[in-house]
Structures are given as structure tokens and as C-alpha cells.
């Protein structure tokens, strides 16, 4: 098969510009990266899926890479993030997609399946099982209690002091 180049473009979705890397044609496979990663994590899978007849799409999620970085923290709710994915499917004229998530992308994939099961043909998640929300703990507190201060997500938390 002739080697095809990975195509990069910006797509307007849900009020932001989202960078996507894509390759191939056929049914769409949406590849969702983890933290702190980008589309580049999926570069080998893009080619492998395209070679097997799929349209492989790996976006830089909201706030990552070449995608828009809204300044307000309130612009990063799970509703915004899943909304970005649904709007991306709409922009690419895909009523349903196969979804593959890794790490943070797996969490978003779980929410996509819960909020919009009609848009997902199948789900493959790596490294993150579904964990129901624990309402009496912030996620960072739960992860710190489970895995300790050296867990990578805990190490990325920023201490803020107010005068």
C-alpha cells in the first residue's frame, strides 16, 4: 500500500478550534490522548488503522497542543470536553464512531459513552477503568488517598496561596 502522510487541520467545534491529525478513509476511529500527551501519542496507530481501512482521527483535546486554550477554568467541564467530541463527529459528518481512549482520554471516552451512547459504535479504553464519581472527595484528593503524593496527577497539582 502506498504510504500516506498524516493530514493535519483545524476544525471549528463547540466554540473552539481543534487540531486534528487524521489518516485513511472508511469508518472513523476516534483516538483520545492522555495527560500530558497530544495527538502524537497515536501516530503509529493512525497509520495502522488507515492501512486496515479506517479513518483514524486523533485530536489535540481542548487546552492541549495546537487546539484552543480557553482562559477560564469553567471552560473545561466534562460537558465542554464531551461537547467538543460530539461537535467534532458532526463536523466530520460521522453519526457514530469507534472510540479508543488512553489515560485522561479514557475518562472522556467513558463520559462520551454515558452522555451520548448513540454516537459510539464501540469503546476500547486503556489504563483507566470506569470509576464512578465520589461526591465527597475531589478527584485529586481521591487519587492522593489511593496512590500517594508521588502519583503523577498529584505531582501536577499547583498549590495556590491567597493573600
Structure description:
With 163 residues, the chain is of the alpha/beta class. Helix content is 29%, strand content 23%. The protein has a six-stranded mixed β-sheet with strand order 1-2-4-3-5-6, with helices on both faces. The model has no long low-confidence stretch (mean pLDDT 92).
Any chance you could write out the topology, listing elements then pairs?
Layout: E1 7-13, E2 16-23, E3 28-32, H1 43-51, E4 55-59, H2 78-91, E5 97-102, H3 104-115, E6 120-126, H4 139-147, H5 152-155
Parallel strand pairs: 3-4, 3-5, 5-6
Antiparallel strand pairs: 1-2, 2-4
Helix pairs in contact: 2-3
What order do the helices and strands follow? EEEHEHEHEHH
Q: Main sheet, how many strands, which sense, barrel?
A: 6 strands, mixed
Shape: globular
Mean pLDDT: 92
What is the number of beta strands? 6
Computed Rg: 17 Å
Strand content: 15-25%
Number of helices in the DSSP assignment: 5
Helical percentage: 25-40%
Which strand order spans the largest sheet, edge to edge or round the barrel?
A: 1-2-4-3-5-6
* Low-pLDDT stretches: none
Give the N-to-C terminal Cα separation: 63 Å
What structural category arises from helix and sheet content? alpha/beta
Structural descriptors:
163 residues, alpha/beta, 29% helix
In short:
The protein has a 6-stranded mixed β-sheet, sandwiched between helices.
Amino acid at each position: 500500500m502506498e504510504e500516506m502522510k498524516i493530514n493535519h487541520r483545524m476544525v471549528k467545534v463547540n466554540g473552539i478550534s481543534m487540531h486534528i491529525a487524521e489518516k485513511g478513509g472508511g469508518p472513523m476511529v476516534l483516538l483520545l490522548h492522555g495527560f500530558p500527551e497530544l495527538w502524537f501519542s497515536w501516530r503509529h496507530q493512525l497509520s495502522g488503522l488507515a492501512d486496515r481501512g479506517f479513518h483514524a482521527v486523533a485530536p489535540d483535546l481542548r487546552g492541549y497542543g495546537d487546539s484552543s486554550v480557553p482562559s477560564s477554568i469553567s471552560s473545561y467541564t466534562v460537558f465542554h470536553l464531551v461537547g467538543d467530541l460530539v461537535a467534532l463527529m458532526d463536523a466530520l459528518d460521522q453519526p457514530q464512531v469507534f472510540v479508543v481512549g488512553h489515560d485522561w482520554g479514557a475518562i472522556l471516552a467513558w463520559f462520551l459513552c454515558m452522555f451520548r451512547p448513540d454516537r459510539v459504535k464501540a469503546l476500547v479504553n486503556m489504563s483507566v477503568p470506569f470509576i464512578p464519581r465520589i461526591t465527597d472527595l475531589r478527584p485529586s484528593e481521591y487519587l492522593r488517598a489511593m496512590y500517594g503524593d508521588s502519583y503523577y496527577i498529584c505531582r501536577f497539582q499547583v498549590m495556590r496561596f491567597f493573600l
